[in-house]
Amino acid sequence: MSFISKTRRLAFGAVLGAVAIGTTLAVAQTPAFFRIGTGGTAGTYYPVGGLIANAISGTGGGVQGLVATAVASNGSVANINAISGGSSESGFSQSDVAYWAYTGTGLFEGKGKIEQLRTIATLYPETIHIVARKDSGIASVKDLKGKRVSMDEPGSGTLVDARIVLGAFGLTEKDVKAEYLKPGPAGDRLRDGALDAYFFVGGYPTGAISELATSSGITLVPITGPEADKLLKDYQFFSKDTVPAGTYKDVAETQTISVNAQWLTSAKQPDDLVYNIVKALWSEQSRAALDSGHAKGKLIRLETATNGLGVPLHPGAEKFYKEKGLLK
């Protein structure tokens, strides 16, 4: 073999080695993408999702090599379907909707159980509001009998919750003059005197209800007493809640119940990945970002991360919470 050909072979080998090393580095640095299905851009899920996505991404000091993004969506049901279908790695949902999906009940009746669904964390409460006109004379759930009440639109989680609440107090839709409107149109009809009350599920204070309280005057109907206690026992995705006095103009403190906003994923997601994501979520850096980034961010607390679980925790999340002493 000539010196030139040997030199060429060594050079060629060096090039191949460099390419191989470069390829290995490229593979090692390939980012892992983790989508978070949220809700509409005008709602609460989307900005909170953005905060969390930034906190857990490698560029935000979170999980090295992870690129998390908040994706606008149609909310709880759409996010669960996306997780189930593999078009999203995770998403936000109300705890009641998550429970129905996991058990094949409620909104998911007849559609089969989504048994691969798992919880990453409970985030914050979403309060059940029964908003009534101030002059309606409605002081309790039982007073809704014979009144014009919007239950929210067909296919919504609020409608199912409204039926459960009425049922707990011995009423059905037939006992009220039921309408099926989104919260916006329901609020307009309340203001115009064409509606007596409507159900709404969401974190307080809600802008549309605040505006209604200021412009027209409202009252919030309490969900309390032995009927509510039994409801809480029968449906573990509900929790006790209180709307503080003054949250809405001239509205006194109101005892009610809530569901929780939860962050869900699939059991198919790797345990180590979810463990590291949860660890990043509850870091000091994330805590500062949540506290300063959104009003609801302050309510996202480690000590309530395992509350109201209607769907099992992902093993990676469960491992972290056990290490922190939240679980036995």
Automatic annotation (TrEMBL):
Residues 1-28 form the signal peptide. Coiled coil: none annotated. Pfam families: NMT1_3. InterPro entries: TRAP_TAXI. Keywords: Signal. PANTHER family: SLL1037 PROTEIN. This is TAXI family TRAP transporter solute-binding subunit. It comes from Azospirillum oleiclasticum. The lineage of its organism: Bacteria, Pseudomonadati, Pseudomonadota, Alphaproteobacteria, Rhodospirillales.
